[in-house]
Model the fold of this input.
Amino acid sequence: MQDQPLDASDFELIEDTLLKYGDDHSVLNASELDGYFTALVSSPVQVDIAEWFPAIWGGQNPDWQSPDEGKQFIELSVRHINALATQLAMHAQAFKPRFEQTEHHAQPLTLAEEWCFGYLRGVAVGNWPELPTPLAAQLQAIAFCAEQDNFEPPADLDVAQHRQQIEAIEAAAHALHDHWVAQR
Done:
């Protein structure tokens, strides 16, 4: 089915393909791609694959080593974007951003910077208009996190505050999606 969530091996293939064909102008990992697709399915208008697919690669489609490799990546991308759209529209509680994980003082720590960077890429490709003030603040929470690209947690990181910021990003994604869906 074209909206079945991807499994770990699918995401591994996506990661490998992004690393193989990506450059400084392209999406470089599954977390960033997840944020990108989340913004696209939350856009005020539907963005055609002819626009969003080349934008993954910085505007230029890869020179695939084989047609099957390109076809497989496109199929996984379409499945993932469709699964996100279904989750956000019909099963909002099932939607979980694909944030990265690291350790901080031997404890798990969620990092959202790459996801947020991808989200902003999707906002740009979707050509979002100006948002009402409360929703602009929601988008700003995502934008602020994206500005922390390559963020290394400081030794004195306030973990509780960091977790609240991560939760706010997920809530913002839901609020922005709901706003634009209601406008369509």
Observations:
- The mean pLDDT is 93.
